[in-house]
Design goal:
It contains 10 helices and 13 strands. By secondary structure, it is of the alpha/beta class. It folds into 2 domains: about 210 residues, 3-Layer(aba) Sandwich (Rossmann fold), CATH 3.40.50.300; about 90 residues, 2-Layer Sandwich (Alpha-Beta Plaits), CATH 3.30.70. Pfam families: ABC_tran.
Length: about 300
């Protein structure tokens, strides 16, 4: 089977402004793919290109084996899409809106809409203009999932949702994967991506800076090391050691960031009496913010492919 999404050197510029630069990646059928980056990184631009809402400046995109521009009608029948800012006619009741959209999709069963609304705690009798942002987002989630599309494209899908509903959303994503659907999900919320994604791409300033499983991204990251000695030590003994960064020494306590092998640091520490040693990998929030801020792990550029 061809990739569900296949991008090759996809680029979008807005005059002198950067949108997306030489983005190359693929998403496999049945995969949950997390697309991460801060606001303005290029996530929504990518999604608009996939949907043919805007045209690329250069490069190419294939979605479900189809050309988003030439095959837009056939492609959109097979997609479920939730925009970052879901907007529909506010005068309708939620149930009326979803029934109308379901009919456009080819008569989605009413039971399916009721099931999703119940799970997301959405009041179908409420007028959309009276709903909070979180409840409008629930309407958007129902319309994206209700016809069991081949590919779900979700742009910041949990915006405005409370934690319990966020958990229900993650369950829906996991169920979609079990049914063979593909999910492309943009987000800047690390915990939700960690819970469901098979792979993640990290984008910064329009460029892809990492593409891997979360486990492998964590494995390539640095260590936070804390060593306690029986007597005070001098920072000068450790400053120039390979891989040692952000060194701080206060009396008997040494803190540093360690990239690469710990061998040199441990040998230097062994010249003293060590009373305590702790080494931690950063949590995902810290890891991803390292990519966002431009201070990634030691192998960032070598492993982007």
């Amino acid at each position: 089977m061809p990739p569900a999404i296949e991008l090759s050197k996809l680029t979008k510029t807005y005059g002198s402004r950067r949108g997306l630069i030489d983005l190359t990646l693929d998403v496999q059928p049945g995969e949950v793919f997390g697309y991460l980056g801060p606001n303005g990184a290029g996530k929504s631009t990518t999604i608009r290109l996939l949907l043919n809402l805007i045209r690329p400046s250069s490069g190419s995109a294939r979605v479900l084996g189809l050309d988003p521009a030439a095959d837009a009608v056939a492609l959109h029948r097979r997609l479920g899409y939730l925009a970052g800012d879901f907007v529909v006619d506010g005068r309708q009741r939620a149930g009326e809106c979803l029934t109308f959209l379901g009919n456009l999709r080819g008569a989605v069963p009413a039971d399916r809409i009721l099931e999703l609304a119940d799970r997301l705690e959405l009041d179908l009798t409420a007028r959309i203009k009276s709903l909070s942002k979180g409840n409008r987002q629930k309407v958007g989630l129902v319309q994206a999932f209700m016809h069991r599309p081949d590919l779900l494209i979700l742009d910041e899908p949990t915006s405005g949702l409370d934690p319990l509903v966020q958990q229900t959303f993650l369950e829906l994503v996991a169920e979609a994967r079990e049914e063979g659907q593909t999910v492309f999900m943009s987000s800047h919320v690390m915990s939700e991506v960690e819970a469901v994604a098979d792979r993640v791409a990290i984008i910064r300033e329009g460029r892809l800076v990492a593409l891997d499983t979360i486990g492998d991204l964590r494995a390539r990251s640095y260590l936070r090391v804390r060593i306690t000695f029986a007597e005070p030590v001098r920072a000068a003994e450790f400053t120039a050691l390979p891989g040692v960064r952000d060194l701080a020494v206060q009396g008997c306590l040494l803190d540093c960031r360690l990239d690469g092998s710990p061998d040199a640091l441990l040998k230097a520490a062994a010249r003293h009496t060590v009373t305590g040693l702790r080494a931690d990998t950063p949590d995902l929030e810290e890891l991803f913010h390292g990519y966002y801020s431009g201070h990634p792990s030691r192998r960032e550029t070598a492993d982007v492919a």
